[in-house]
Amino acid sequence: MNEKRDIDLIDELRAQPAELPWLEFKKNNVDPDGIGKRCSALSNLARLEGRDCGFMLWGIDDTSHEVVGTNFDPASFRVGNQEFQLWLAQRLQPSVAFSFRTVAHPDGRVVILEVPAATSAPVGFNNIAYIRIGSATPKLADYPERYIKLIKCLRPYTWEHGIARRYASGDEVLDLLDYAQYFRLIRHPLPDNRAGIFEHLEADGLISRDVGEKWNITHLGAILFATRLDRFDASLARKAVRLVVYDGKNRAETVTHRLDGHKGYAAGFEGLVDYINGLIPRNEHIGIALRVAQPLFPELAVRELVANALIHQDMTVTGAGPQIEIFEDRMEITNPGRPLVQAERMIDLPPRSRNEALASLMRRMGFCEEQGSGLDKVIAQVELYQLPPPLFREGANSMQVILYGPRKFADMTPDERVRACYQHAVLKLLSGERMKNATLCERFGIDPKNASQASVIIRKALEEGIIKVADADHPRAGYVPGWA
Question: Nearest Cα to 377, choosing from 412, 326, 426, 417?
Fold first, then answer.
């Protein structure tokens, strides 16, 4: 931790007019049980007060707030034969990542105890949760109105709000984040002064105020607008997009192109999609008078699938980021984390994202659909190109979408034909229509004279229960997905 920041933090806390529910000053009081109870109270009150952390400072006079110094040494302090910090950690439930820091303040030695705000449940000491009321530390259970309020305030950890770079100067923020691209993407004129720039970045949660007139860059700010992700810590740098292109149909073939992205997702998205589309093989189709080169995969489908992989990944999965692999006959897009929606329902159900702030800002900037997941557009493009149906596949801790290149109906597998039938039924339902034998023939490019081929596929899909007759009393009314 930066000691200059800790000195600024101490001075900012001392400047408070009095002790606060989340802030307490001590001289040399080192009663272990008392510290444990206050850890519980500070964590719970920090959440109630909307703070990220609570603090206890030794070496500060609690009346004048002057630095008086302390001889408390948390590193050497013991309870019985056990190190104090280990003793304390074992008695706080749920586990809290508190930290003690000894600071050589210009006016004397100060010890800071920083306690993160409660997240999933009230924090207890020896299985009892505490709060602070004035200078007292009573049990939370004795104040049911405060307990109810705390439960309402508790929220799960939100990755986007975490800090990627702490205590950064204004110049560092402007150097680390592509703020010009941010204003271009939100379609707002670039302010003519730094205060205006920081005001917008802060309003969108890309930065937050730190002590000493410094700034914190949030995970959201870094992952979207970093000029280089590798200028942040390794866990964030590993979230960069990786692109690999193979000269063949499997990973044993020669790698012709490899790109390890280094920009934030929003800052580099347009360039990434353009680069991918430039690498995609093209097929020549002969029109009435001209040869027309068409990409193997629809460009709109590529854009939507890449955006979905970035937005809906599980950011807490360490050592992994989105990966795009292009083969001779398909494209595989993989992102960390199992999906929050069943794979077979991704087309029709509204998306559920772990990264709501990221998804909201990406939608605002036009990278993905405002309503829905955009996957219905992907399916529509696939059908327009009469491609094999995309495959949505869940892994143990990942999600993968496979987009296939052109293949004749005769070359599609039975499973692909049935999957295409289901996706076609979903698309028709979303359009307020119903799938019929004729529409399925059109989707596959089957000559109406051979409509029996579509009938075989429909019969198989009915047997598997993934589609059903729309109206049992009128079998010719068409078909809908099995869950409709």
Answer: 426
